[in-house]
User: Which sequence fits this backbone?
């Protein structure tokens, strides 16, 4: 079964808007939560990651919010640009699980100019 | 380019044929992972190596699949007697032991006719 649930499946925003993607997990052994960005025909590229001892992390225009008690985390893309149009995947892994990644199903983000 | 490389990028084959893919990880990365990604889904874990040892195989990896990493550097993934259901993007990722961050290659797109 899918260990990480991701929503929405797709979303469209205007340039400058803030797309928000949500993920939820059940396995409390997960201790690392990355986000990957994927363009058509390319491999996933690591964007930003967070650990459960931190509630928020920012890197450039990308922010992860983490709620350990709810077992949820989300990605916000600030001041979105057309070049941010891509599919975004949340994932989770644990040292106990030898770091293999469990991915969400992905969210296709379209930023309109 | 010092990133993960995969070869070939695309492979079209007929049902029943054998195919082999190659992955060259980032140098000094001792962990190597294989994932499979079908259209509209997130990558799914197949198997991983630490140096030359194959440490875990997913139940997705049927007996028609075999992976090797003979000298702890590049890895190969072979699919015997391909089926149409094998059509997917096969992704390779590498990391340093003890570190969560996995870096993906561009993938090999397999189409089985």
Assistant:
């Amino acid at each position: 079964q899918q260990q990480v649930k991701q929503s929405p499946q797709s979303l469209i925003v205007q340039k400058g808007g803030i797309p928000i993607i949500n993920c939820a997990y059940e396995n409390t052994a997960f201790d690392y939560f990355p986000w990957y960005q994927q363009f058509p025909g390319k491999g996933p590229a690591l964007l930003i990651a967070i650990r459960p001892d931190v509630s928020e992390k920012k890197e450039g225009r990308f922010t992860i919010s983490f709620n350990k008690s709810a077992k949820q985390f989300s990605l916000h893309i600030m001041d979105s640009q057309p070049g941010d149009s891509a599919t975004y995947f949340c994932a989770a892994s644990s040292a106990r699980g030898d770091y293999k990644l469990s991915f969400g199903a992905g969210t296709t983000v379209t930023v309109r100019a | 380019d010092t990133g993960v490389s995969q070869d070939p990028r695309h492979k079209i084959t007929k049902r029943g044929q054998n195919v082999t893919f190659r992955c060259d990880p980032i140098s000094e990365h001792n962990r190597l992972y294989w994932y499979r990604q079908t259209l509209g889904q997130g990558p799914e874990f197949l198997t991983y190596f630490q140096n030359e040892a194959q440490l875990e195989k997913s139940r997705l990896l049927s007996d028609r699949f075999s992976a090797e990493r003979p000298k702890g550097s590049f890895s190969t993934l072979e699919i015997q007697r391909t089926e149409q259901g094998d059509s997917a993007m096969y992704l390779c990722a590498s990391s340093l032991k003890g570190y969560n961050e996995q870096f993906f290659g561009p993938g090999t797109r397999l189409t089985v006719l």
